[in-house]
Amino acid sequence: MLKFALGRLLQAIPVLLVVISMTFMLVHSAPGGPFSADKAVPAEVLAALEAQYNLDQPLWRQYVSYLGDVLKGDLGPSFKYPGRSVNELIASGLPTTAELGLYAMLVAVFIGVLAGVTASMRPNTLQDYVPMSAAMIGICMPSFLLGPLLVLIFGIHLEWLPVSGWGQIPGDKILPAITLGTGYAAYIARLSRGGMLEVLSQDYIRTARAKGLPEFVIIGKHALRGGLVPVVAFLGPAFAGLLGGSFVVETIFQIPGLGRFYVQAAFNRDYTMILGSTVFFATLIILFNLLSDMLAIWLNPKLRQQVRGDAE
Amino acid sequence: MKQSPLRSKHAPMSVGAAIVFFALLAGCGESETNVQSGNRTGTLHWGNAAEPQALDPHIATGVPEHHIIGALMEGLVVKNRDTLKPIPGMAKDWSISDDGLVYTFTIRGDARWSNGDVLNAHDFAWSWWRALQPKLGNLYAYMYFPIANARQYYQGDIEDFSEVGIVAIDDLTLEVTLENPTPYFLQLLDHYSLFPVHRATIEQHGEPDERGTRWTYAGNMVSNGAFKLTEWEINRAVIVDKNPHYYASDDVRLNRVVFYPTENQTTEERMFRAGQLHYTDDVPIDKIETYRAAKNPALKINPYLGTYFYRLNMRVPHLQDSRVRRALAMTIDRQLITDKVLKAGQIPAYAMTPPNTLGYYPPTTFSFDPAAARKLLADAGYPNGDGFPVTEILYNTNEAHRKVAIAIQQMWREHLNIEVQLLNQEWKVYLDSESSGDYQISRAGWIGDYVDPNNFLDMWLCGGGNNRTGWCNPEYDRLILEQAPSAATEAERHAIFKRAETILLEDLPVLPIYTYTSKHLVHPSVKNVASNILNQNYFRDIYLQPASD
Hints:
Chain A is mainly alpha-helical and 312 residues long. Helix content of chain A is 76%, strand content 0%.
């Protein structure tokens, strides 16, 4: 297992290098620079600014020195926010985004598993169709529609919940978590329904039924564990996706997370911030994929055998 | 409000989810809104459009920064919030020599920094020296250029700062010598680029001309305004508290201002409705009608010193004929655009300078006249628009810009029978296209930094950085650069500007479209919010008075 993990981590190095190189080329070839502004920037000011951020150097030298800095863990200064480093900006946004992602994930798992299991208990009946249709709508409904809709209902009309913010007013975390979690809840519902249906047709469930166990115990104790394996495999990439994909929700609800920085950085041509966030997210996705693969291996004896066989 | 998901080792995750979910729900219920608690504690909740890039007055450039820095710092003069007339700030009074060249300021004896240090004339001299260091990258350095030799020093033609017209005669006297008489000089002093900064703090955190040191962080910053920086949480809020060392702190009635980066207008409007904000930076264009219809007193619309216009690229062959440019100008029904498309009280513009810019009224050289325009176009060789090349309007991606462009496209098609295409580009790409001259017609806006026609006219000088049209007229340059600065009286100066602007409007390298308005939602409890054309607020004057009081 350790060997497997090490091998995967080694593979990650060229992947990251490609990500950095491509992003570096893309940001530098995009029209408009970090210092272009509505009002003309005098040549001497532009020269002073470019010198300060090494933009007056040849591109290859900038690239090499950037790689050197990244190796040292230094993602450089932000161009847009003088005085802030990219490390600092990521560190300031990450806890919020991670918290939002965690709550969204819990909402997703709670709703998704509940809906999926309910549906799987009576396949092809109303009890199946209703939650699964809801799940389909959930998958199709983009968060930029769902968010404002929830805000209008619960924030403006009913006045139950705050319409924006994060940790400033009690209850302001509920709507963002639900908005972000719903799409994933829908996926999880479909995955858990599929997984449960497969497990419920297994012999050991028939045995349990024959023993006369109540349905509640059959589902909760025997079927759920096996039925949720596909969901568990999905959680790793899903969490990385939640962290990287929360910018719409962060914008709608005015949440000071990473996603907003990432998108703003692209608009601002904040080269170091774009690169830094991309490197950060790429690393995160690689790590989460590795974790969920390891989890899958650990859960599935067949795969475990295979890994062991490869190692020998 | 922190929830810890309690989970036993074997329980399914959904139990944890349920706990967190209900814990989240338990947190809500009947609670005070920001506006209610703010009115009780003297805290103003202010929608501030965007996260400030910097709070260093010699580095910052944007409007959101302007609001915060305006609360934190103060210049030699401030302005009356309604009339914009300069009134004493850090200088308790001043005198101007008869030739209008030498300004002598007396600093008030009770001027203090927020840490209690005495603020004197040397602080101003040092701050202005710093602002003129090229390495600092101060985009507003040109605000100093009316001062004798400031431009030469900034551009490196003069090495010795003592040759620049800034001298601290003694602790309380600052003498400023100008290059030419500059009637708007006092106004400039209320611009943040001329605000004083605390030398010891800056030197403690880096070199004076170093960009982006940490002296503006909460806990480090020392400032001289009615408020001091308490907290700066990135993308969350900037919080400023009343500064007890401010000379007029007894008159400051707010205890705290919280600035929120509300870059999404729709969210901002919802926050206002939910009582989370006292004041919004803007109002979404599609909401204005609703507020109007409901006669909601929160909606405040004021004229704003800014012009929305189109640049015409003089390097494009078919736009080089002034008759063509004139025909285009005469077939934009500006009234229709402001009344039916924008609907927020904008004023149709037929000149570059907004009307009544400190008593200056621009000339008009054309009006909406499709018949005359068709004749002009025919004279230029395009009768009934025949043979007129397909023309492209470039704008930065934005719903309002798109609507205006579509309206103009329709008008030109209808009145001139010419084909117009629309091209939208993302902001930085658009800036790049415009400044490199890679466009035919391009949308633009110009917001005044100070109230003077010069601010709207000197951008059209030959080769000026903000010209971008390739238009150049030596007579125009002579009027703006030589004649206007040496005018003896205000009336004479305005007459010269009028002559210059007539040249501009006869030739029309630009198509003025409308004069901006500023739009806000203001909670009725907020008093003394400014309604001036610079949209400039003075937080030291604002107070909160709930209706029940």
